[in-house]
Amino acid sequence: MGECSYLRLTDEDMGRNGAERIEWAWRKMPVLQQVRDEWERTQPLSGVKIAACLHISAKTANLARVLKAGGAEVVLCASNPLSTQDDIAAALNVVYGIPTFARRGVDHETYYHQINATLDTGPDLTIDDGADLVTTLHRERPEQARRVIGGSEETTTGVVRLRSMARDGALYYPVVAVNDAMTKHLFDNRYGTGQSSLDGILRATNYLIAGSVFVVVGYGWCGRGIAARARGLGARVIVVEVDPFKALEAVMDGHEVTNMKEAAGKADFIVTATGDVHAVGREHIPYLKDGVILSNAGHFNVEIDIPALEEQARSRRLVKKDVEEFTMQDGRRVYLLAEGRLVNLACGEGHPVEVMDMSFANQALSAAWLITQQGKLSPGVYRVPREIDERVARLKLAAYGIEIEELTAEQKEYLASWQAGT
């Protein structure tokens, strides 16, 4: 599968430490546990090669272990230069025998070298988070891409990219949009991003959220979660939106809504979660309040216009781990967290284990489903089959010890009819 020692991740002590963290996370992943128990018997992925480009965390390691338990040959690389936890990568390589090409803080060239090393294994399936693996495969290895059975995509940004590829006729195989599953975006994006983004900001700054003005740019599922958690910690939340429906929803959720220039002058904290470029752009920088903390919860580090920030600053320096200070010409100081990359992963450990249990169960079950659909699906982006999504929800409820009601035959008949009325 390839030699990983050039990434300096064969340290056995580091690997043992990572394994302890992986096992700790496993305790709170009951849905994946049930999938593993079934797959150890049925081996639905026997002989299937899977290349996964994901954030290398303890939760991801447990997904990889489940895929391997189901018979797959798994190889991993990182989906973000700052999201790799090196002890987890070491554990995957040394303890669990799952080749992992990843190291925290790599440069652009090394990042794509790792992706290509993963693709060198000739995968039958791809699992992606942000679509860098898929786009590299299609741009640089089109003939190899045409031989892939299928893939899945974890996050909103990646699904947007894949749908653009499909519209342009540039996607060569079917991909399941795991992000669109109800048991993914309703929980992972909202509760996961909400908690983990605040966690990352607090770890990086140790500043008080209560009483602060906290600006959330973008009110999709991720933005909703961040706003709710900031408000829960006592912040005055301001939402910036371009979508009138989402803006109206933010108002009715009790938040102030305004434009970016107005919000910039009030903000103590700004978090972007739009999936688009320059949500905090060149034109907004002169309005930023002295001492503002800028961070990003979107997949790529393009939501804050960092080149414009550099141009308008008279100096910059790293004041503490993951916190860079830009001093503007007029003396204002602007602080950027984690180089504008995913604050929850670069400054913290990412989403809570319990939500990733559901997201990664969708990934695992979608991989097995794609194998059963080989030759039946044309290239394109597909939803997670409802039966998989519902199964994940029911398994999670069962893990919580919760029983829900069932419709009676009479109720089903009523809902299927039109004759009954007032």
Automatic annotation (TrEMBL):
GO BP annotations listed: L-homocysteine biosynthetic process; one-carbon metabolic process; S-adenosylmethionine cycle
Domain S-adenosyl-L-homocysteine hydrolase NAD binding, chain residue ranges per copy: 189-350
Cofactor: NAD(+)
CDD domains linked to this entry: SAHH
MF annotations from Gene Ontology: adenosylhomocysteinase activity
Entry keyword annotation includes Hydrolase: yes
Cofactor note: Binds 1 NAD(+) per subunit.
This protein's record includes keyword Hydrolase: yes
Residues where substrate binds: D129, E154, K184, D188
Catalytic activity: S-adenosyl-L-homocysteine + H2O = L-homocysteine + adenosine
Similarity annotation: Belongs to the adenosylhomocysteinase family.
Stored PANTHER family: ADENOSYLHOMOCYSTEINASE
Official protein name in the record: Adenosylhomocysteinase
Organism: Thermacetogenium phaeum (strain ATCC BAA-254 / DSM 26808 / PB)
Underlying gene: ahcY
